[in-house]
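We now fix the convention by which a protein and its fold are recorded. Think of the row as the fold of the chain written in a discrete alphabet. Here is one such record, which you should read through line by line.
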Amino acid sequence: MRIIDLSSPVDADSFEPDPVVHEVLTPREGALHMAEEMRTHFGLEFDPDDLPDGEFLSLDRLSLTTHTGTHVDAPSHYGSRTTYGTGVPRHIDAMPLDWFLGPGVVLDVRGREAGVVGEADLRKELDRIGHVLAPRDIVVLNTGADAWAGTRRYFTDFVGLDAGAIAFLLDAGVKVVGTDAFSLDAPFGTIIDTYRRTGDRAVLWPAHVAGRHREYCQVERLSGLGLLPAPTGFRIACFPVKVAGAGAGWTRAVALVDETP
């Protein structure tokens, strides 16, 4: 089995609307920190110079959102109420793990201007690759946006799904939809311009708002979809980090490709 990384990094040196702060304690600083923690919390005195080379372990401190890097959006990210189930959306730590390992389907929607793709576009691509959607397929969009990751353009130039497109996928039983773009919806500026021109609230983040009425998860900020050998015939694993009560969790998404000897 070959494992293909489909994840983008959490990188404090890359541009982010919500900047990442990454502080590193060296092994020496880790020793001093450990000694202080033992003294403060457990009343234990320990001389860090007794450690080999006077060092303990390095330690990383990060300040970031759960939507930095490749991540899975939970139903609670889309709104505080639902029209399904109990009316209360689930957080990321409550989502069933079997959602996040399944047959992968890559739909190529590259080469388009910033905006949306619709149901007809998805049907055309499915016809091209000869695939019929099945429940629990993990469908991911190759928009080409990952080529601009780490730059401002990544957050402004990409395509997302319109209301009809996301409904089409959910009607087929898909529970997890991914994209290599910043969002499964169109860019912020595109959405606002369309709303101002039309006055139609249906254009306001339809892929996310759909999650208030149908339970599903999004995987955003994927990368490396062009490395996959074919649009189908592999599995995707994208288990989210179990952040209690959170609307999203980071994931190290990968494709699992079975190779014949």
